[in-house]
Amino acid sequence: MNKQQGLSAHEYEQICQALQREPNELELGLFSLNWSEHCSYKSSKRFLKLLPTVGERVLQGPGENAGVLELENGWCVAFKVESHNHPSAVEPFNGAATGVGGIIRDILSMGARPIALLDSLRFGDLTPWPPSQRRVKSLGVEGRETPDPQTLGLSVRGGVGGEVRGVRGVFEGVVAGIAHYGNCVGVPTVGGDVYFEDAYAENCLVNVLCVGLLKKHELKRAVAQGIGNKILLVGARTGRDGIHGATFASEDLLGEREEKRPNVQVGDPFTAKSLIEATLEACREPELVGLQDLGAGGLSTAPPEMATRGDAGLAIDIEEIPVRAEGMMPYEIVLSESQERMVLCVKAGSEQKFLKIYHKWGLEAAVIGEVISERVYRIRHEGRTIAEVPISTLVGGVPEPELTPSPPSQRRVKSLGVEGRETPDPQTLDLSVREGPGERSWRDRLKRLLQSSTIGSKRWVYQQYDHTVQTNTVIGPGSGDAALLRVKGERFGIAVTMGGNGRYCQIDPCEGGIRAVCESAHNLLSVGAEPIGITDCLNFANPTAPEVYWTFEQAIRGMAEAAKAFGLPFVSGNVSFYNQSETRKIYPTPMVGMVGFVRDIEHNRVPMGFQHEGDLIYLIGNPQGKSGGSEFLKVFYNVVGGELEKTDLELERRLTQAMLTLTERRLLMSAHDVSEGGLLVAIAEKGFPRGWGARLVLDDISEEALFGEWPSRFIVTVAPENARAFREVLDGAGVPYQLLGTVGGRSLEFSGQAIAVEELQEAYESALSALGAIL
Amino acid sequence: MMMHAAVVVFPGSNCDLDAYHVLKDLLHIETDLLWYRETDIDRYELVVLPGGFSYGDYLRAGAIARFAPVVQELPNYLERQRGIVLGICNGFQILTEAGLLPGALTRNINRQFICKTVTLRIENNATPLTQLFQLGEIIDLPIAHGEGRYIAPPQIIERLKKNRQVLLTYYGENPNGSGEKIAGIMDETGTVFGLMPHPERNAERLLGSGIGLKFFESLVQETVHA
Q: Scanning A151, A565, A700, A730, which has the fewest C-beta atoms within 10 Å of its C-beta?
């Protein structure tokens, strides 16, 4: 029983001690969920404390369902990221769909209207289909293309199929699940990123960030208080799905994936949409005391968490809960993770008003309990108490496991290699680009990089997501480093981004953590926004392994250091451990979501692409560095490794200041952060939106200089008449810069060679189809 | 006559507030959000069925919404010549399901949801919805749908073309595989309109060319001169 409940012997002892008796099955279930890693953060909290959480704009920091920052004119932004990795690995379509649903309800719990979603996805490497496999099982129709039945994505609606079908199947299922849920629920999916690396082949990552908008006075908390106040369960009926979802997310993902499929919930975005509207109506009623969504753990976790915040106790009556199936046991009802449900605490006597709102929207709503004075969570069935546990033990009483971080003995791995391929030593590689045509000319290399799955266009993905609903998307996916949203009736705007490069963290977790924060900040600065706050999703393998726990600690230390340099608070977050199988661990992957503020969206936003012929192209920031972890090392040499250039946070601070001043003074015609693929990829990408080419003068044309990835760089363009003012700003801020050339023509030219922007764009757009990821 | 407009809200509508924003905030038209159970619609000169996933689009897009009380009332409203009905995206799907517009909107040819900006051509500018455009004008509007492939029997298509009921066609790429590239049509009386693209999503310069506003301005002009 304890094994299935995921509790250790030591934890069981603690429970008996707190209760002064053996727990019954239901009580044990309560502890199992509340004390799971997923719900309790027992292994992570000692390091999470290192993250800065205060700032001028912080209205709500960590501890609620989402963080909230103040903007302007009483407006606030609520945001949080959450993982749904395990469910998505087991059942990609519904796992990803319910990941979207869960985070939307977290934002709703703050009293905010969800206005945007972003997804950071990680999958195994995509490799081209071997020709022999292409034609099987398809009869085709003469004269037409013959699609491969494996890639048809037949699970697309409803997810009936959904068997684990390898990397491609997981990728398609996850994208279809996100599209299914997000599109229907009417919240635009405006950004995110997708990487393909072997390390994620058996453990995909699905991290979803939701942004909500509210007025300061509308802020709600997930609290139950006021003795005698009523507890309402609203939304969908409670069924047998998803029992022990949180427990299963707190273990390694081993062979028995098929058996875990019933642990994955099924999402219903239509009900979710009605739940959003009904709940926003309910939030306008003054008798609403608090609300929380039912996510991991269902009724076993949400009510006691609300009671904890209200310093109260809570009792519920099982027979009042609307159920989907006859004969459900109390254990099943309490532990069910059926989606699209929320718990409200309302003033006694106002219940009818709330029931009416939900019934109008065709939803279930029932009074299922009340706030009580004893600090216990009491579950009653037909008047009889069937479980009763002290709230303080249940929530937060879990003993911290004794884990010791310890660096792996062989730290100075120069090369991690790519599975099944030759692994050269990066130290001995000849990285100079040869002049002239042929396989090693910069033109061919650039094309190959643009066509890599990491760098190439993700249009096939985001085109399936509704990114324009709600009519606030000023910069959407594929057209900028960050998404930019307007707020109707206001001058200001909100920028948002999310990402994280696991490869950097695998090589150096501390530097990787620093870069994750810097990269997100750069994305915001590129569109003209000032970074104002962070949410994070920490994806790691099994923390009981000392070296994994060490990478976790290091990554957090890096993130904390960088956030402090920028003066940015972490206001919400999520930890996902146990992302490993029998044979493979994921790269340590801290994902950083960041929100930025644009004072005047009409005038201060900055486009990514080249705008006008004759504009000057400048590199600002660090002109040189080491290029360990670069995409070009993997694509050209099968090397995942090398040494990372350390980020100079003092330079980052000055760079940020300079970018903000340039934006404020409207001196930038365009801006783009230099990230994966390095300098030349960034320049090429700037040509795509309007088809402009560039004439460049580059001193160093080695592969490292052209394609190496090191931090603290932007490529910007400036109108010639503003060049002087531009240089003065950078000189004043003490930030290095370098003139690289001018915008013009329809091709990219330097050192006597040229390549048409159109040809580069073709390579970029064909990245996923070249890998056979899509039809 | 000042226009009074209604934007219908079905459970699952998700472009209702977007259409409301254009009518109310941009064009300053008196506009109500109308719950799907309401049937008292004679006071409106314009009834908009907005985009979204009414009833989750379970069964088939628009197949359940056609039974909503407000949709059941539309034939009477039209019979009494009270005003214009405009269905956008899911609203268009509902109107074909309800038989107020001919043909059907089926799953996109690539079997995927498609969200992108497409290029369109104005095929008839002598209608209340398109009168401010030039005939043959090329415009850009976002689409966002999984079931937008317009189909109809050949004789219906012939008739649509003959009566100039085709308002809008996809220009260049046909994103969803629609028959005759049809993106928007009207009924024979010229009072019921269906568009798959979303004019309300490109009604301001901040969001694109802003060209979508012209459809709504055309409707306002129509009722002012009516």
A: A700
